[in-house]
Amino acid sequence: MSRFNRLPTPLAGLVVIERKQVGDERGFFSRFFCRDELRDFGADGSIAQINHTSTRDKGTIRGMHFQRPPHDETKFVSCLSGAVFDVAVDIRPDSPTYLQWHGEILSAENGRSMMIPGGFAHGFQTLTADCELLYLHDKPYAPGAEGGLNPLDPRLAIKWPLEVTQMSERDRGFRSHEE
């Protein structure tokens, strides 16, 4: 019996995973990660790095970040506290959905994660104060391969659900795509 539900998205390779919770009056149990089960969803099952982020203010945008090949990575992103609008943008030049985006609400309550393959930029907006996210990466961070898109670029037309309260100057300075 699988402990995960796969929720397809309109972007090939991008998957939303819902963790099944088994609960009683004490709380719940859910499987957070299973290499063997997640292979069926397109991940190779390896974890090279785990990152944790905390964002204090509601409305904050972080992203849209990616790693260039050959360091492009699959990210398994989950919200441990609060709620975020999590977004992935297809940056594969030969893809029929190039520069299209998909967003999902990830929260501690809904038990959803986004599995974002290489070839996508990733970012999020906090829907509540005090959000914590956990990222599982299949490759280690390579500083020289880092890139990003401007989350507010009108060519991407991401429909952020809230007014932007904070965003780094670095993220504001990214272009919509590499030319």
> How large a portion of the residues is in β-strands, by DSSP E?
35-45%
Mean pLDDT: 90
Count of distinct strands: 13
Content-based structural category: mainly beta
* Overall form: globular
Helices and strands, in order, run as EEEEHEEEEEEEEEH
Radius of gyration: 16 Å
Can you list the strand order of the major beta sheet?
1-2-10-7-12-5
- Parts with pLDDT < 50 across at least 5 consecutive residues: none
Helical fraction equals: under 10%
The total count of helices amounts to 2
Distance between the termini: 46 Å
Largest sheet: 6 strands, antiparallel
Q: Please, could you describe this protein's structure?
A:
With 179 residues, the chain is mostly beta strands. The protein is 5% helix and 42% strand. The strands form three sheets. A six-stranded antiparallel beta sheet has the order 1-2-10-7-12-5, with no helix packed on it. Strands 9-8-11-6-13 form a five-stranded antiparallel beta sheet, with no helix packed on it. The relative contact order is 0.25. The model has no long low-confidence stretch (mean pLDDT 90).
